[in-house]
Amino acid sequence: MPFQPLRRCTYPGCRNKVQFGRCDEHKPKDNRLPASQRGYDSRWTKYRAQYLKAHPLCVMCLVKGKYTPATVIDHIKPIENGQADPLFWAADNHQALCRDCHSYKTRVIDQRGFGAKKRNETY
Ligand SMILES: [Zn+2]
Ligand SMILES: [Zn+2]
Question: How many CB atoms lie within 10 A of CB 99?
């Protein structure tokens, strides 16, 4: 087992020992949170219910001519910091997707990075 020496918290003047970065007391607030805490709280749940009422069909299925009930709101541009991210609540960054399309998108499309221009290779 490799031994991990503890270092001092990087917060100026703090003497707490940590494995890296800062101690619990001084962790930066924008630290990545576990998924359950990344902003998907009751406010989001409420918003999602309203959004899906207004946008009941999966938009990715729709372009293929399929009518599938949407169950998730997808962030078109993936968000990094939960509700702290300005894109989290941006309505034009939301689209209604079904679960299949959502997992397809997060697995395949988002992996390419959203900076890449969408190309339609059939043309
Ligand atoms: Zn500290
Ligand atoms: Zn779909």
Answer: 13
- Per-residue pLDDT of 35-53, as tens digits, reads 555 667 888 999 999 999 9
Place of tokens 């999966």: 58
User: What are the sequence ranges of the domains in the chain?
Assistant: 37-112
Counting ligands in written order, the one closest to the CA of 11 is 1
Nearest to 61 by CA among 89, 26, 32, 101: 101
Q: Extract the tokens encoding 46.
A: 């409420």
For residue 14, the ligand closest to its alpha carbon is 1
Nearest to 52 by CA among 38, 66, 77, 69: 69
pLDDT in tens, 85-112: 899 999 999 999 999 999 999 888 666 6
